[in-house]
Write a structure and sequence with these properties.
With 384 residues, this protein is an alpha+beta fold. Helices cover 33% and strands 24% of the residues. The chain has 15 helices and 18 strands. An 8-stranded antiparallel sheet has the order 14-11-13-12-16-17-15-18, sandwiched between helices. The protein has a 5-stranded antiparallel sheet with strand order 4-5-9-7-8.
Length: 384
């Protein structure tokens, strides 16, 4: 089946309208970099891509705002901003192939969510196309403008099940004057978490604070519990980081290209793992900061945690092992989803065992946008 890639927002809206008018099911995508994520991609009558919507529409470096089309590759977008030493610090996996719209629609983020937050904190406006053929403009290009922003927030993390994101407006962040990273080794999860707690209670405000278990640390050449700290600021601030972190453990210091390579490695841990293991799976567990130690200790294979926010990722070479882990996690009351797994296996797996009380409200929103359920059926972890 041919993939239709409308060249502008208006034609995207019209393409959706014509398909929905005849009750044809629709598979909506960007660059399909996350085809192994969330619910399996169901067979559809129409395949529509936003890949041709590839450009920056408005960029005001002095106002710290940008308006970008959904199909622009994330890495190209980030490079364009970096030319002015500005950024949208989401650090999504698959950044080399992922589109801006795909990053927002999947709600993915990376290590720097510790300081900067997620897409919900950075998106200030959006244009999206509905199945009625309407092009809805929500929010704006002013950071303090919140009018209509909640409508745009519905699209974040919806996996294209409500509408097609056409344009995203972001608020921008200046790059730090200088950056340096410190990797602190520990013999146990308890020691690493205790060091994490001391950092969080101190005056230090690292951009990223990630915990790698020994199996993940081994990929950096040190089989230990590793606390990776990303620091930014002026030279005096960086020196303070080095002094205070050295009191916790002897740090490995990463600067320049080595610093960048460290975080690219952590950001891309998921795509590299899935490339190596065709039957591999990734489980995401959301927990409190207090509960993070127990979650991380429960993983037998590699695991990485956003240690300052309580989001943990466990990596399994085989899907069956991931399913067994999730069954135990549900019994312990952990909020768990099977985030990545092979397409065929996800057709029958319980990807989101305990969705909580919000699911019924989400289904009502889905009905408002897509009453016949023709758009990206099942993509929201097979629940919607």
């Amino acid at each position: 089946m041919n993939v239709v890639a409308p060249p502008n927002s208006e034609e995207l809206a019209d393409t959706l309208r014509r398909a929905a008018l005849h009750s044809r099911t629709i598979a909506l995508s960007g660059n399909s970099s996350k085809r192994l994520m969330a619910g399996p991609i169901a067979a559809a009558d129409e395949q529509i891509s936003t890949a041709a919507l590839n450009g920056i529409l408005a960029y005001e470096p002095h106002d710290l705002t940008v308006s970008v089309q959904a199909g622009m590759p994330w890495r190209d977008f980030a490079c364009a901003l970096a030319a002015n030493r500005q950024m949208v610090p989401l650090d999504p996996p698959f950044a080399e192939e992922a589109s801006v719209g795909g990053v927002v629609a999947s709600g993915t983020s990376g290590p720097r969510r510790r300081l900067y937050g997620t897409a919900r904190d950075m998106v200030i406006g959006m244009h999206f196309a509905t199945l009625e053929g309407k092009l809805v403009r929500s929010g704006g290009m002013v950071v303090k403008n919140v009018a209509g922003l909640d409508m745009a927030k519905l699209m974040i993390g919806s996996f294209g099940t409500l509408a097609a994101i056409a344009v995203v407006n972001f608020k921008l962040v200046p790059m730090p004057e200088t950056e340096r990273s410190f990797v602190l080794p520990f013999d146990s999860a308890a020691a690493a978490v205790a060091a994490r707690d001391r950092i969080l209670k101190s005056a230090l405000q690292p951009a990223a604070l990630d915990l790698l278990n020994p199996a993940a640390g081994d990929t950096l050449g040190t089989r230990a519990w590793l606390l990776a700290v990303r620091a930014g600021g002026n030279p005096a601030a960086i020196e303070r980081y080095q002094r205070e972190l050295s009191e916790l453990a002897p740090p490995q210091i990463y600067e320049g290209t080595r610093h960048e390579s460290l975080w690219r490695h952590i950001e891309n841990f998921t795509p590299q793992f899935l490339k190596k293991y065709a039957d591999g799976a990734v489980v995401r567990v959301s927990c409190t900061l207090k509960g993070l130690e127990a979650v991380m200790a429960a993983f037998d294979g590699p695991a990485i945690a956003r240690a300052g926010t309580g989001v943990c990722y466990g990596y399994f070479e085989r899907c069956e092992a991931a399913a067994a882990f999730m069954a135990g996690a549900v019994q312990r009351g952990w909020k768990t989803v099977l985030e990545f797994a092979p397409q065929d296996w996800r057709k029958t797996a319980d990807l989101w065992p305990s969705p909580g009380g919000d699911l019924e409200l989400m289904r009502k929103v889905k009905t408002l946008f897509d009453p016949e359920s023709v758009l990206n059926r099942g993509r929201l972890f097979s629940r919607i």
